[in-house]
């Protein structure tokens, strides 16, 4: 059996993952409207929320797939990451910056 890579996964898998993440982003947008942080008919803000949700969900999907999580758990995590949106991306950034701190700057940059 060939190794699973992003290129050989079924499109239906991507549809489930991105769709669930986008639903999470939609729920997040509705919550923001109800709390007064967003206007109900602001289509630009809604599209931004959904695109960010799709990105966060897709990144979460890849990490879960790499970790060999069950597909149902993976899709659930993608939906949660979609609801979190940019907060999920910032959390991942914090994890990676802790695990992989930036390299020391060279002496030329230190003199500035």
From TrEMBL:
The keyword Nucleotide-binding does not apply. It comes from the Bacteria. InterPro entries: LydA_holin. Keywords: Membrane, Transmembrane, Transmembrane helix. The chain crosses the membrane at residues 12-30, 42-63, 69-90. Pfam families: Phage_holin_3_3. This is Holin. It comes from Herminiimonas arsenicoxydans.
């Amino acid at each position: 059996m060939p190794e699973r890579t992003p290129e050989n996964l079924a499109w239906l898998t991507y549809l489930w993952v991105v769709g669930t993440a986008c639903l999470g982003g939609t729920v997040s947008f509705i919550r923001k409207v109800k709390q007064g942080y967003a206007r109900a008919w602001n289509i630009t803000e809604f599209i931004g929320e959904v695109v960010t949700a799709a990105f966060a969900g897709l990144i979460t999907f890849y990490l879960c797939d790499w970790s060999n999580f069950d597909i149902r758990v993976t899709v659930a995590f993608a939906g949660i990451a979609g609801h979190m949106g940019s907060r999920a991306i910032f959390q991942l950034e914090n994890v990676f910056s802790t695990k992989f701190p930036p390299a020391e700057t060279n002496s030329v940059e230190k003199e500035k």
